[in-house]
C-alpha cells in the first residue's frame, strides 16, 4: 500500500473544478494553507535540488538550469567549479573553455557568455560577492526574476518572491490556485495566497511534490496527500 493510502482512504469527496473557480479569496487562502501544511509533512526535507556550497555556486547552477534538468546541472557543475571556483576565476575564463564545460546543459553558447559576463560583473561591480537584493541580482547577465528568487530564498534566506518553475506552474494550475500561464502573474497570485515567510518553502515543496507525485504525464493522485484539496485530482 502506498504511504498514506490508509489514512486517505474514506476521505470526503474533494473540491470540484467549479467549486474552486467560485471559492472566495478567504476560502482559497485557507485551502492553500492546508495544502502547505500537508506538503510540509509529506516532504520535510524539501530544498533546492541544485548542488551548491554558497550563493555564487547556486547562482551559476541556476543560470545553467534554464531548459535543463537539475540532475544534468549537478553532473556539470563539479568540474566547472573545480576549474573556476570564484567569480574572479570565472571572469578570466575563455569563452571556448566555458562552452565546452557547459555544453551538455543545452544552449551552451548563450549560457557560457552569460557566465563570463556574470563573473566580470561580480568582480567589477560587487567586489566578487553575489549581491543580496532583487534589483542588483536582476542587473547581472543571465539573471531574471526566477533566478534571483532562487538565490535570495535559498542562499540568503530572503522571501522576496515565489520561484515559479515548470513544476510550480503546473501544480498551481492543477490545484486551482491560478488560471494564469504567465510565470510572473502566477507568482503574484501565489504571493497573495501563501504567507511571505513560506514563499521559498512553498516553491521547494511544490517542486518536490511535482517530481515525486504530481508528475506531468501521470500524476499519482491515489497516493497524493492533497488530492481532496485539488480540483484536478482523479480519485
Protein architecture, described:
The chain is mostly helical and 235 residues long. It folds into two domains: 5-46 and 161-229, Endonuclease Iii, domain 2; 55-155, Hypothetical protein, domain 2 (Endonuclease III, domain 1, Orthogonal Bundle). Helices cover 57% and strands 0% of the residues. The chain is built from 13 helices and no strands. The chain has helices at residues 5-8, 17-22, 25-42, 55-64, 70-83, 87-91, 95-102, 108-126, 134-138, 145-155, 166-174, 183-193, 199-212. Helix 3 (25-42) packs across helix 13, helix 7 crosses helix 8 (108-126) and helix 11 (166-174) packs across helix 13. The longest helix has 19 residues, at 108-126. The two termini are 15 Å apart.
CATH architecture of the largest domain: Orthogonal Bundle
Structural class: mainly alpha
CATH class of the largest domain: Mainly Alpha
Distance between the termini: 15 Å
- Measured by DSSP, the beta-strand proportion falls in under 5%
For this structure, the CATH topology of the largest domain is Endonuclease Iii, domain 2
> What average pLDDT do the residues reach?
94
Number of domains: 2
Any idea what the radius of gyration is? 20 Å
Low-confidence spans: pLDDT under 50, at least 5 residues? 1-12
Give the ordered list of helices and strands.
Answer: HHHHHHHHHHHHH
The largest sheet, given as strand count, sense and whether it forms a barrel, is: none
Report helical residue fraction. 55-70%
What overall form do the CA principal axes indicate? Answer: elongated
**Number of H/I helices:** 13
Say how many strands there are: 0
Amino acid at each position: 500500500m502506498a504511504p498514506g493510502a490508509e489514512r486517505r482512504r474514506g476521505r470526503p469527496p474533494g473540491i470540484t473544478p467549479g467549486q474552486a473557480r467560485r471559492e472566495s479569496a478567504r476560502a482559497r487562502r485557507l485551502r492553500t494553507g492546508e495544502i502547505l501544511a500537508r506538503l510540509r509533512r509529506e516532504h520535510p526535507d524539501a530544498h533546492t535540488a541544485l548542488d551548491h556550497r554558497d550563493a555564487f555556486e547556486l547562482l551559476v547552477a541556476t543560470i545553467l538550469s534554464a531548459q535543463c534538468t537539475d540532475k544534468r546541472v549537478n553532473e556539470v557543475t563539479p568540474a566547472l567549479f573545480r576549474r573556476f571556483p570564484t567569480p574572479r576565476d570565472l571572469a578570466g575564463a575563455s569563452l571556448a573553455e566555458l562552452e565546452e564545460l557547459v555544453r551538455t546543459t543545452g544552449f551552451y553558447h548563450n549560457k557560457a557568455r552569460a557566465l563570463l559576463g556574470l563573473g566580470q560583473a561580480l568582480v567589477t561591480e560587487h567586489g566578487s560577492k553575489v549581491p543580496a537584493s532583487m534589483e542588483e541580482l536582476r542587473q547581472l547577465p543571465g539573471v531574471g526574476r526566477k533566478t534571483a528568487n532562487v538565490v535570495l530564498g535559498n542562499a540568503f534566506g530572503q522571501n522576496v518572491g515565489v520561484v515559479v518553475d515548470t513544476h510550480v506552474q503546473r501544480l498551481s494550475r492543477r490545484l486551482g490556485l491560478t488560471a494564469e500561464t504567465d510565470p510572473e502573474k502566477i507568482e503574484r497570485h501565489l504571493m497573495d495566497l501563501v504567507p511571505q515567510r513560506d514563499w521559498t518553502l512553498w516553491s521547494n515543496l511544490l517542486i518536490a511534490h511535482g517530481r515525486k507525485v504530481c508528475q506531468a504525464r501521470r500524476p499519482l493522485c491515489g497516493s497524493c496527500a492533497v488530492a481532496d484539496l485539488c480540483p484536478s485530482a482523479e480519485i
